[in-house]
């Protein structure tokens, strides 16, 4: 039995490596590698070979062990990322649903469930980090596709990573950001909007939308660590941490995307097209104009960040 488990794990690791190769090959050619071949083999063939081998091994792994493992969740995650980079959002959503089901089946969504198993803290933290990424993608895709998230608002203090310097929304201003800080902030971003509830109401209530915006600014934006603030971010660590500027940009794009999402129903309300409409009280006309400006700014900042 032990030998069988070890064999399944090795198969899953092989799949993970193949999925990583397929995903990363999408970024080639690049300024650092200008060829469209690897050891004489075209990138298209490399991707196709990796995908076909991974698909075949995934069937074998699932047949041998239906419950899954952390490594299986991770190789599903890279399959989803490949779908995302290809622009296939629906396929990414479907792969994410499989990864979430596996995560729940092995209990990585719950510290209580994992505490009953013999798992050391390092492995637990790896599981938390994987779960945070699933939670982030779930929030992103559910907003983009106007669907109900797979994962409810379920992050608790016990879920937060214990390795990184940021815990429970705090970080010393004198400390450099940890490599996973941006992911933790993105998880908190997703968690905030999960707590807001459904945004698919038939009528747009501009007062409620403004209250959501004010709550977001006071409870999330104002709590961002200095290195990640939207205005005048502290960039003293940028040279020492070369990935930090990109992480900051990714977080900012995600923030502006959620702000756009908050005010997006304005675009669908034909009766609110004219700000100067006399059918609205003066204060609502002013509020509507402010929200239309916020919507435009959020959209432009998000677009500017991904150019």
Supply database-style keywords:
307 residues, mainly alpha, two-stranded antiparallel sheet, 2 strands, 59% helix
State the helicity in percent bands.
55-70%
Give the overall shape: globular
Order of strands, main sheet, comes to 1-2
With helices defined by DSSP (H or I, 4 residues minimum), what is the helix count? 10
Mean pLDDT: 84
What share of the residues does DSSP label as strand, in percent? under 5%
Helix-and-strand structural type:
mainly alpha
Low-confidence parts: 167-171
Instruction: Report the biggest beta sheet as strand number plus sense, adding barrel if it closes.
Output: 2 strands, antiparallel
Which value, in Å, is the CA radius of gyration? Answer: 22 Å
The helix/strand order is HEEHHHHHHHHH
Terminal CA distance reads 52 Å
Number of strands: 2
């Amino acid at each position: 039995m032990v030998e069988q488990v070890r064999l399944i794990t090795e198969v899953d690791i092989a799949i993970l490596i193949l999925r990583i190769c397929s995903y990363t090959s999408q970024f080639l050619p690049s300024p650092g590698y200008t060829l469209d071949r690897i050891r004489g083999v075209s990138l298209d063939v490399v991707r196709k070979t990796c995908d076909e081998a991974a698909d075949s091994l995934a069937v074998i792994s699932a047949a041998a062990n239906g419950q899954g493992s952390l490594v299986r969740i991770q190789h599903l995650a890279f399959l989803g990322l490949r779908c995302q980079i290809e622009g296939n959002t629906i396929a990414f959503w479907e792969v994410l649903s499989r990864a979430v089901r596996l995560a729940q089946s092995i209990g990585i969504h719950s510290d209580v469930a994992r505490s009953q198993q013999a798992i050391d803290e390092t492995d637990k933290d790896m599981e938390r980090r994987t779960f945070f990424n699933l939670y982030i993608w779930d929030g992103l895709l559910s907003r983009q596709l106007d669907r109900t998230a797979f994962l409810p608002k379920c992050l608790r203090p016990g879920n937060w990573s214990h390795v990184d310097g940021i815990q429970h929304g705090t970080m010393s201003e004198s400390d450099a950001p940890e490599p996973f800080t941006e992911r933790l902030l993105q998880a908190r971003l997703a968690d905030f909007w999960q707590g807001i509830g459904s945004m698919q109401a038939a009528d747009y209530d501009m007062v409620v939308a403004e209250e959501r915006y004010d709550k977001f600014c006071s409870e999330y934006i104002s709590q961002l660590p200095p290195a990640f603030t939207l205005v005048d971010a502290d960039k003293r660590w940028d040279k020492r941490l070369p990935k930090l500027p990109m992480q900051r940009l990714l977080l900012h794009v995600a923030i502006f995307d959620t702000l756009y999402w908050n005010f997006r129903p304005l675009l669908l309300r034909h009766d609110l097209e004219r700000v100067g409409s006399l059918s609205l009280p003066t204060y609502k006309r002013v509020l509507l104009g402010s929200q239309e400006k916020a919507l435009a700014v959020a959209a432009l900042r998000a677009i500017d960040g991904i150019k």
